[in-house]
Amino acid sequence: MTEYATPDAHGIYVISPSSAIADPKTLERASVRLTKLGYKVAIDRQALAVNQRFAGTDAQRLSAFSRAIKQKLPIVMASRGGYGLTRLLPQLDFKAIADSGKRFIGQSDFTAFNLALLAKTGAVSYVGPTACADFGANKLDLLTAEVFGEAMRGELEILSFETRDADSIDCRGTLWGGNLATLCTLIGTPYMPKISGGILFVEDVNEHPYRVERMLNQLYQAGILGKQKALILGQFTDYRLAPHDQGYDLPAVIKYVRKTYGIPVITGLPFGHTPMKVTLPVGAKVGLATERGLVHLVLDEHEH
Question: What positions does the domain LD-carboxypeptidase N-terminal occupy (predicted)?
Answer without folding.
Answer: 12-128
